[in-house]
Amino acid sequence: MMTPSEVGKVSVVQSENRTLNFSEIFAASCRIRDHVVRTPLLESPVLNERLGGRILVKPEMLQKTGSFKFRGACNRILQLTLGERRGGVVAWSSGNHALAISAVCALLDIPAHIIMPESAPQMKIEGARRYGAKVRLYDRATENREEIGAQIADSEGAVIVPPYDDFNVMAGQGTVGLEIMEQCRELGIMPDNVLSSASGGGLVAGIATAVRTCRPETSIYSVEPAGFDDLARSLASGHRVENAGGMNTLCDSLMVPTPGALTFPTNHALLADGLVVNDAEIRVGMANCFEHFKLVAEPGGAAPLAAILSGKLDVREKVTVAVLSGGNVDPSVYSSIL
């Protein structure tokens, strides 16, 4: 584990809203280390030769509950007071955050209320219920999940833990980036590029803060599905923009209307660019995760590898890390894609 004295410092362009601090990520890593899996860095010589660079993947589908979300949920919930724990936790999610919150609450014997869209993968809905959470399904078109969450929190005296717009959640996700830098150092290499999928932007913000504090010259890229590329367009415009309605994608975990209010200042300050992939490219990414790494990646989890394989970024003669954010995909969907 790195100590603060072992890492360099990067000058972060500050905006009116504060950005995530490396110290928060380091504290999170100490807080959650006994509860999370230190997922490995994997590479395929065949894929490296094919792409002309060194490609490493960080398989967060091997994390507890099958995604990186367990890290942020754990960091936030471990900091609840005894009184707050009695009231329980409210969270909204299309699946991975729901699973993570449910699992951490079950571990700590805390009531969990989860709000999920009716269209969420069935395995994620059932998974949250298996952990003992009370699941409230809603219609994306006619209902507002934040309003439902506020009503439940008010009636139950519960604490709302949002999926990304919370600095403690972002810090927990940032431990992915801290591990990447520790593992690269162990391998005697340093990454030129790091790619992470983005919905609200909490994961990539945490990764960018950790990685660029340790190595300012590393370029960090967000990856989004076509039609939900709000972060890429927001980075280009310099302010948060919304997606147009009526779009769809295989990436159920990456369907948000606009970047997070708290995540965007960090991402605007630190990201090199936002990359966009379509569903056909996502399918190729999922298939290659299986072929080269024997990993099951959900559509959103495979997006960074899809961006590399489709030539969205020049990786020749460079070290590039792709964060595979999760593997919670319904078997029927997965088999049809393969």
Could you provide a short overview of the structure?
This protein has helices at residues 22-32, 45-51, 69-77, 82-87, 96-108, 122-130, 145-156, 167-187, 202-214, 230-237, 263-270, 279-293, 299-309, 331-337; strands at 42-43, 54-59, 89-92, 112-117, 134-138, 159-160, 193-197, 219-225, 273-277, 319-324. With 338 residues, it is α/β, with parallel strands linked by helices.
Structural notes for this entry:
The chain has 338 residues and is of the alpha/beta class. It has 2 domains: 15-68 and 166-337, 3-Layer(aba) Sandwich (Rossmann fold); 69-160, 3-Layer(aba) Sandwich (Rossmann fold), CATH 3.40.50. It is built from 14 helices and 10 strands. The chain has helices spanning 22-32, 45-51, 69-77, 82-87, 96-108, 122-130, 145-156, 167-187, 202-214, 230-237, 263-270, 279-293, 299-309, 331-337; strands spanning 42-43, 54-59, 89-92, 112-117, 134-138, 159-160, 193-197, 219-225, 273-277, 319-324. The strands form 2 sheets. The chain has a 6-stranded mixed sheet with strand order 1-2-10-7-8-9, with helices on both faces. A 4-stranded parallel sheet has the order 5-4-3-6, sandwiched between helices. Strand 4, helix 6 and strand 5 form a beta-alpha-beta unit. The protein starts with 21 loop residues before the first helix and ends with a helix. 53% of the residues are buried. Residues 1-16 have low confidence and may be disordered.
